[in-house]
Amino acid sequence: MEKFEHEYRAEQIQVLEGLEAVRKRPGMYIGSTSIRGLHHMVYEIVDNCVDEALAGYCKNIHIKLEPGNIVSVEDDGRGIPVDIHPKTKISAAETVYTVLHAGGKFGGDSGYKVSGGLHGVGASVVNALSKWTEVEIQRDGGLFQMKFEKGKTVQKLTRLSDSKKTGTKVRFLADDTIFETLDYDFETLENRFREMAFLTKGLRIVVEDLREETPKKADFCFEGGLISFVEYLNKNKEKLHPKPIYIEKNGEFPVEIAIQYTTSYSENIYTFVNNINTVEGGTHLEGFKRALTKVFNDYAKAKNLLKEKDNNLTGDDIREGITAVVSVKVKEPQFEGQTKTKLGNSEVTGVVQSMVNESLAAFLEENPQVAKNILEKSISAARAREAARKARELVRRKSALETTTLPGKLADCSSKNPEECEVYIVEGDSAGGSAKQGRDRKFQAILPLWGKMLNVEKARADKIYGNDKLNPVILAVGAGIGAEFDITKIRYGKVIIMADADVDGAHIRTLLLTFFFRYMRPLIENGNVYLAQPPLYKLSKKGMEDIYCYTDEDLEKQYKVLEERGITRDQLGLQRYKGLGEMNPEQLWETTMNPETRILVKVTMDDAIKADEIFTLLMGDDVNPRREFIEKNAKYVKNLDI
What is the pTM of this model? Predict the structure, then answer.
């Protein structure tokens, strides 16, 4: 990787303001104090290492989860400057870790060409929110160390010995009085660091979990960069062309894009700025989409692949089945919000659009068969779009002729305020009947479903409109589907899937979640989708109030509590619920619907890449990966009803 030739010493570390508020309001700086915020602590330190790689100096990053949930991050970059900072009069290294907005990433005379992280505040924020932090630096011929407790220096930067190496090693223990949990999830970190390695061609990232008796290790290095990334994303999908289309140019700023089409009906475009996942897109995505639409339409017309009577293909038509990664490196990115989820630099649109116009047009001319395969799929998508439009209009006309546009089986609530309303999508008429009787009619609506619904992973939108299983869901939610979905029009703040705790129930939940993910994704992103948790068991005894247990562990816990009260197992009646229909309305209300006592699991989507992979794996056409997944995970299954 080309080195960014620039001086990186104390004068490049610029101080903007103090540190004091971080511990008082951690959510403002780290996003949250949940496990998501905890993981963000690791990301911030690793981001600093990746910035060294982007500058051309770091080749290896090693992350360890040590016993006691201690995190260690080590790189072989230049090492944080150790000389005295001209403004703070302490070492530059201590300045970076104790002063908010102190780092080598601000302004035109910074030590970095591009950078990620929390606007340069990452190191000091991690330090402030940790019980203790230790930093070792190798540079300028020496090994240096400094230590902190809750953001305050307890050991000034001290030279320990001579060293010919360079790099930085950070160890920290997050503060358990601030975070809800210190239990890092290895798989979450593994996915994140795999993504980072894809985005930084040739960078090796090793992550180890040493907390258990059997250690876990993941080792990532991808010389193919984004090409490897797209191949990984499409590993379980049927491809329209064997090799991804690759575009790379270093003009006003570096732009790297990889594209590959599959036979699927979904669109998956992931955008990054300085290795930060911009989940809301922005100007780089806008430029890419514009160019993609123009280039394919121009090519189709030039090669007479579109009939004269046909209109241009829409962007949605052309993007059906696409998997693409768009990565740009911008020296001074402008983001909307502290969390950096949308790029705002207006100049990026034109640069990306111009580059894709030129490179993609040349690729299509040189690869006519690939161009033909993609355009045939796009033209097929356009026909399906037209069929979907007609089906949609038919549904609307039919609804207009009826007295209500809501599905007949829906028992609606009296309130019209979406913030307080919730709809239960219930498996089966029997359970639906109990739910209707047991609900609070003011704010709870019930929509019973019967039979298996359409697997949308294998169907286009034109098959969805008019589908007797999915159309009631679309009408009940009231916000449309696909590109027309409008989150502001939802009729219920909570959409709750309530299915039996058996194989059929799990299948129905998966089918519904696949539908929401592919055609109502903002519903999940906005936190409106929930899974109801009906009890698995009921413990009863004459003269004793019934006890409901939601897991096997919960059952064993209740047995022990009752035994301490002198009630033995053989004195208790145990009922294992096979389905929701076995509960009467009062039981269903008390266990599964009463906001005071129920358990709801919110469906979240922190990792869209992982979510897409799982839905493709479980619901797609390729059987072999699904079989491998089942064989690998079968040992973890509990309560499998045959």
Answer: 0.76
- Domain boundary among the residues 191, 220, 249 is at 220
Residues 418 and 379 both lie in one domain = no
Is 504 among the residues known to form the active site? yes
Catalytic residue among 502, 525, 590, 607: 502
List of residues 6+ apart from 93 with CB closer than 8 A: 80, 81, 82, 135, 137, 144, 146, 157
Strand partners, 494: 422
Q: Which of 451, 409, 454, 455 minimizes the C-alpha distance to 433?
A: 409
Q: What is the CA radius of gyration of the chain?
A: 28
Does the annotation mark 612 as catalytic?
no
Q: Dihedrals φ, ψ of 218, to 5°?
A: -130, 135
Q: Helix H segments across 427-496?
A: 429-438, 471-477
Query: Structurally, how many domains does the chain consist of?
Result: 3
- Measure the CA–CA gap between 247 and 608, rounded to whole angstroms: 23
Catalytic residue among 76, 256, 500, 613: 500
> Does residue 631 register a pLDDT over 70?
no
Which of 504, 525, 546, 621 is flagged as catalytic? 504
**In the listed set 385, 411, 433, which residue is the last one of a domain according to the structure?**
385
427 counts as catalytic: yes
**Would you say residue 459 has pLDDT above 70?**
yes
203 and 230 part of one domain: no
Locate all alpha helices (DSSP H) within 322-450, ordered by sequence.
346-366, 368-401, 429-438
Cα–Cα distance, 401 to 629 (Å, whole number): 48
Same-domain status, 233 and 143: no
Q: In terms of C-beta density within 10 A (0-12 exposed, 13-18 middle, 19 or more buried), how is residue 425 classed?
A: buried
Report in angstroms the alpha-carbon separations of 129 from 209, 549, 554: 22, 37, 34
The active-site residue, picked from 427, 457, 462, 613, is 427
pLDDT at 119: 39
The CA distance from 58 to 3, in Å, is 10
**Amino acid found at 589:** W
Quick: pLDDT tens for 107-126: 444 555 565 554 345 899 99
Q: How far apart are CA 557 and CA 145, in angstroms?
A: 48
What is the CB-side half-sphere exposure of residue 252 using CA atoms within 13 A? 12
Half-sphere exposure of 335 (CA within 13 A, CB side): 21
